[in-house]
Description:
By secondary structure, the chain is α/β, with parallel strands linked by helices. It has one domain: Rossmann fold. The chain is built from twelve helices and six strands. It has helices at about 10-15, 35-40, 45-55, 70, 75-90, 95-110, 120-135, 155-165, 185-195, 200-210, 220-230, 240-245; strands at about 65, 95, 110-115, 135-145, 170-175, 195-200. Helix 3 (about 45-55) runs parallel beside helix 5 (about 75-90) and helix 6 (about 95-110) crosses helix 10. The longest helix is centred in the first third of the chain and has 16 residues, at about 75-90. It is globular, with a radius of gyration of 19 Å. It starts with 8 loop residues before the first helix and ends with a helix.
Amino acid sequence: MAPxxxxxxxxxxRWVPDExxxxxxxxPFVPVEVSLDLARLVSEHETLREAVRALCAxxxxxxxxxxxxxxxVGGVAGERAMCAAMTRAGELPSLxxxxxxxxxxxxxxxxxxxxVTPYTESVTSxxxxxxxxAGTAVTGRAFLGLTRQIWKVPYRDVVDMxxxxxxxxxxxxxxxxxxxxxxxxxxxxEAELRMPVLSANQVTMWAALRRIGARAVGPxxxxxIEEERRARPSAPEQSPERQQQQEG
Length: 248
């Protein structure tokens, strides 16, 4: 499920393996610009429950709320309460973008991050507060101050913001907002900045697919490469006698 103004269905699909189906529904329209007020409105529990019930008509295996601001605006406790409300409504595993971000940071062992957002300063600061509650420090940030049509931001602006944000000793970069295009820019930034780059849509799809035993598709993306590496069976240990035979 996604907020009413979500415009990047096509980008979400790019992380999905061929054998997996992705179904989307949106929250009801409200005449409010992107702000903390909007984040609260699109994350009300009854709104989430209605969206989950709509999606349950196609018998999904997992439900994801694809909205960063809507899932961090209530802090860590608020995000957990959202997941609980969705799980009760559909009786199936549920997650949010902000919760998926914390899972991805844990998987990479990242405790200090650079932050890029299209939001206003107040919404960006709310994300920093959410991360601080989870024990993650923000070493640098850049934001655009947008309140509408975020999906129209070009890749070059995302790259420029990333360069501005990476000013301290960060473990990785996070690009926030599911309405901000990021798929094609992640490999470029990882190569240039020499650190893992996470994005809102990437971590959402990574976490959702992980819940059903599948892996997201994305070339040259460190999070997905690390996931594949961990999934590979380790080679069995050989006895000293066997090693000597091979060396001989």
